Amino acid sequence: MYDAYQEIIVKTEEKIATITFNRLQFGNAFALATYSEVIDAVEKLGGDDAVGAIVLTGAGKHFSAGGDINRFKELIETKTYLAPENVKTAGKMAMTVRRCPKPVIAMINGAAAGAGCSLALACDFRIVTPKSKLVMAFVNMGLSGDTGGMYYLQKLLGTGKTMEMLMTGAPVSGEEAVRIGLATLLADEDNLAATAYAFAKQLAVKPLVALRHQKALLNEFFYGDLESYTEKEVAYMVDCSHSADFAEAVYAFIEKRPAGFIGK
User: Fold this and answer.
1) How far apart are CA 144 and CA 134, in angstroms?
2) CATH numbers and ranges of domains, the chain
3) Greatest Cα pair distance in the chain
4) Are residues 244 and 264 in contact, defined by beta-carbon separation less than 8 angstroms?
5) How many CB atoms lie within 10 A of CB 137?
6) Is 132 exposed, middle or buried (0-12, 13-18, 19+ CB in 10 A)?
7) What is the Cβ-side half-sphere exposure of residue 241, based on CA atoms within 13 angstroms?
8) CA 148 – CA 242 distance, rounded (Å)
9) Residue 2: its pLDDT value, please?
10) What does the pLDDT look like over 132-157, one tens digit per residue?
11) % of the chain exceeding 90 in pLDDT
């Protein structure tokens, strides 16, 4: 059922399913196929009576670097830029996680940046270590943001802290994330998995009908305008991808130098 995926690994054990992003050589940056595979896996696991909770994590050192910079370079050089349907699919991936009837936990090893951070914010809970970093890195790439990041962040932190994280692009450490309510639990570096799965086990044995209705109420009354937000998010991301600053950010990243933005 879950063996056909190329970008992710799905395993289930003792009522807990784990989805692992498996693009080690790219820091688990998302490919276009990643979006579709995560959507498919979460939808299937959400309807699987043998699953009580879902854990998202990344293979190796990092949760996810977010967007694939090499793909961005291709888009610039071919003058194809970001396609609206692809940005929309990234948003759908996070929306599918948000609306999953099962509790979803982000186990954040290392960095969760850009779309990776956004996806972690769409989860119900986030487990971190002192070395974890949550980075709304879009502005550093000349982009406004996608995958619902601003929306989910504002729900968790309010507008002031959201704008600080978005406009500075500065990383938030695991300790700071717990202090400000962005993360649920702070684990010792060597005990991240043990802490996350102990928490998942608590949730996996709860009454699933009650949990499903709790999430349904939350999503209907507090996340009800997510679709209209996503439409605007897509339009702004596509517009940013045509900018000179986006191209400058991509080449500066690849060339390992500071970007020189010109506001165009």
Assistant:
1) 17
2) 8-190 (3.90.226.10)
3) 55
4) yes
5) 27
6) buried
7) 26
8) 20
9) 74
10) 999 999 999 999 999 999 999 999 99
11) 98
pLDDT, tens digit, for every residue of 65-102?
A: 999 999 999 999 999 999 999 999 999 999 999 999 99
Amino acid (one-letter) located at 253: F
Report the alpha-carbon distance of residue 152 to residue 12 in Å, rounded. 27
Instruction: Enumerate residues 6+ apart whose C-beta is below 8 A from 77.
Output: none
Kindly report, residue by residue over 19-48, the tens digit of the pLDDT.
999 999 999 999 999 999 999 999 999 999
Fill in the amino acid letter for 25: Q
Distance CA 238, CA 261 (A): 18
Question: What percentage of residues in the chain have a pLDDT greater than 70?
Answer: 100
- What beta strand segments (E) does 45-203 contain? 53-58, 104-107, 111-113, 125-128, 133-135, 172-173, 185-186
